[in-house]
Amino acid sequence: MFGVAIQAANAREAVEQIAQAERAGVDAAWATMFGGGGADLLPIYAAAAMRTERILMGTAILHTWGRQPLIFAQEAAALDELAPGRFRLGIGSTTAFFVERSYGMVYRKPLLNLREYLVTVRALLREGSVDFSGEHVSARARLSRPAAVPVMASALRPKSYALCGELSDGAISWMSPLKYLVGTALPTMQAAAAAAGRATPPLVAHVPIAVTTDRAEARAMARAQLAMYARVPNYQGMFAMAGYEVDGEYPDDLLDDLVVSGTEQEVAAGLRRWRDAGMGEILAHPLLDPNDRERSLARSFAAVAAARG
């Protein structure tokens, strides 16, 4: 499948963008924590469920530290009742910056935090109940009924991909070059899934796109809109594993491996190349022209829809 990342200034605009994506023929609408202008994503998806009929919806991602497992499960179950089979819950332990500044918590053992959330939220949704006590989570709760909502997780380095292969219903990447996903992330997931005696869940490749034939313009938009990740040590480490040295600035060859750009048809073909390389789903993140956001967004949605072939 081919989906898009919603980028709205507020909740109402986010609902409109999801409906626009469905009209354009896009398979799935995803959003980051700030995809609705900072508004909570789950009420946005509830409203969008009433405005749409087909498009899948997903979070990429919600922070584990911001909700208890029971709340995640209750909200996901409600969305499944409103839009049966159309919601995917993506969660992640995020970074120390968000946890300590936004939530006032101590950022420790993020991989264990994610593991405990995957165990508890998936148990609630799959089985309808959970009885678990861990370092980060204690949950003894029951839902009125199970809900068939996939619980996916963000992944960046090999240990998080291994965890996703072992426990999740899918891994969601971000800012990861294709050669890293093919050479490191996917084999790590496959090995962990095999060791756990289960099928490998899908790897959702979160791919920046720019619908422009000017490669220099595409690189400039990427550098402006994705600047912070070039300065984050976790991402710098991942880039180094992919063969790129990044110290606050992106080299051109990294951006060429990371960002799919060109005409609408060229972007569509580029996204199909990522799918054909083994990705289970493509989540396209439009890099938008700040001087013409509406047209830029519409062209991006058209390119993603065209990728379906």
Task: Describe the structure in your own words.
- The chain is of the alpha/beta class.
- It has helices spanning 11-24, 41-51, 69-82, 96-102, 110-127, 158-167, 178-195, 215-225, 233-241, 252-258, 264-276, 293-306, and strands at 2-5, 28-31, 56-59, 62-63, 87-92, 129-133, 138-142, 151-154, 171-172, 203-210, 260-261, 281-286.
- It is built from twelve helices and twelve strands.
- The chain has an eight-stranded parallel barrel, surrounded by nine helices. Strands 6-7 form a two-stranded antiparallel ribbon.
- Helix 3 links the parallel strand 4 (62-63) and strand 5 (87-92).
- It starts with a strand and ends with a helix.
- The mean pLDDT is 96.
Q: What is the CA-atom radius of gyration, in angstroms?
A: 18 Å
- Tell me, rounded to a whole number, the average pLDDT: 96
Largest sheet properties: 8 strands, parallel, barrel
Instruction: Work out the helix count.
Output: 12
- The secondary-structure element order is EHEHEEHEHHEEEHEHEHHHEHEH
Give me the secondary-structure category.
Answer: alpha/beta
Q: How many strands in all?
A: 12
Low-confidence stretches: none
State the end-to-end distance: 11 Å
**Range of strand content:** 15-25%
What's the overall geometry?
A: globular
Task: Give the spatial strand order of the biggest sheet.
Answer: 1-2-3-5-8-9-10-12
Q: What fraction, in percent, of the residue positions are helical?
A: 40-55%
